[in-house]
Amino acid sequence: MDQLDTIEAQSIFILREAYRSFKNLVMLWSVGKDSTVLLWLTRKAFFGHVPIPLMHVDTAFKVPAMIEYRDRFAREWKLNMIVGKNEKSLEAKETFPDGKLTRLECCAALKSEALKHTLSGEWPRWVLDHTTGEYVKQEGGEPFTGVIVGARADEEGSRSKERYFSPRDRHNDWDVGDQPPELWNQFKTDFAPGTHVRIHPLLDWTELNIWEYIERENIPIIDLYFDHGNGKRYRSLGCMPCTSPVDSTAKNVAEVIEELRSGKFSNIAERSGREQDKEDGAGLETLRRDGYM
Question: What predicted TM-score, i.e. pTM, was given to this entire model?
Answer without folding.
Answer: 0.88
